[in-house]
Hints:
Layout: E1 2-3, H1 4-9, E2 25-29, H2 56-69, E3 73-77, H3 87-96, E4 100-105, H4 112-120, E5 125-129, H5 134-141, H6 146-159, E6 163-170, H7 178-188, E7 192-197, H8 214-234, E8 239-243, H9 247-259, H10 261-274, E9 283-286, E10 291-293, E11 304-305, H11 311-316, H12 321-327, H13 335-339, H14 343-346, H15 351-358, H16 372-375, H17 379-384
Parallel strand pairs: 2-3, 2-9, 3-4, 4-5, 5-6, 6-7, 7-8
Antiparallel strand pairs: 1-8, 9-10, 10-11
Helix pairs in contact: 4-6, 9-10
Amino acid sequence: MLNVTKMIRGASCKRKPPSYPHRPVVVWNVTKRCNLSCEHCYSASSDTLYPDELTTEEAQEFIRDLADYRVPALILSGGEPLLRKDILELASLSSRLGIGTALSTNGTLIDEQMARRIKESGIYYVGISVDGDEQTHDMFRGEKGSFHSSIEGIRACLKAGLKVGLRFTMTQKTLECLPFVFELAKMEGCHRLYLSHLVYVGRGRRLSSDAPDTEKMRNTMNIVFGHVEKMLREGSQLEVVTGNNDVDGIYLYYRYLTIDPHMANSIYLGLEERGGNTAGRLIASVDSFGNIHPDQYWSLYRVGNVKERRLSDVWSDEDQPLLRSLRNRLDFLKGKCSICMHRRLCAGNSRIRARYFYGDLWAEDPACYLTDTERGINTDSLEAI
């Protein structure tokens, strides 16, 4: 995740050596059930009951373990998390135990009363997904009227005093709505705009052919950076964040290399400190059945199950093969990623996209939009790999 606003503001960066085990932010998909059927859903959710999801008692034990392990944040996601009847009870437990607790939702089930209950549960942040203007959003979400319901959800949460983020996934079908989404986030008074690159999992695999090409993605990020620069000049408080493509930070670095070398250096140091893709390091995911994954897009790979072993024990296990590999991933990268001079800044980006395209977790990420020159790769290097 790249906080574009903070990077461009020039937030100071202090380098510090990595240490394991990291206390990860945990994304918990509390249920797979959802009242919508979105084209890009990574969990391929539907409006049906799924057996064997964590019981209330199992969920409470899981949350207590996270608190004892001192994880910094728990993101309650889905499916649609508000379809889980005990969700606010569990959120209250999490927040009481000192975990920063956030909610990721489609917003359609939030009215003013629900927003107040969310606030009372201790949830401090609500991320609500919007895929563009009304026509685009309703088409993507598979339900007419869902755009209006999501906007009402945003307004109800803001009225209740919650911090609210608008979430938008960038695909070929939605990119033309990007200026609209910027204006919507500002007009509604949202605190954050989260722009996600597409990861080809769940139903999102069907959209892989609609992924923006290299030139389109570069143009899109130029638009994003330009919007942020303009908002900062205007004094806007909207925070813009991009996710699921660590190349964004490197591209931002190149943007400032000729404009402001001092700022470019600050951006570079910030990227170096973060260390690139966080799957298996700074982020963990638990699905509704208790399976532990390196992040929420790794549904085909599990490293344990909280019904059998505590997440804290799994995450601290230095002999867990996949986690060990992800924490030393530079040793395994192949293709252009293996010889790119910026590989320490992005850590090879998304291993899941690489697996989808090439059948190999360690192949190069097809969504990297840097040129070979920007990667520091020459023809002789390409022939050698």
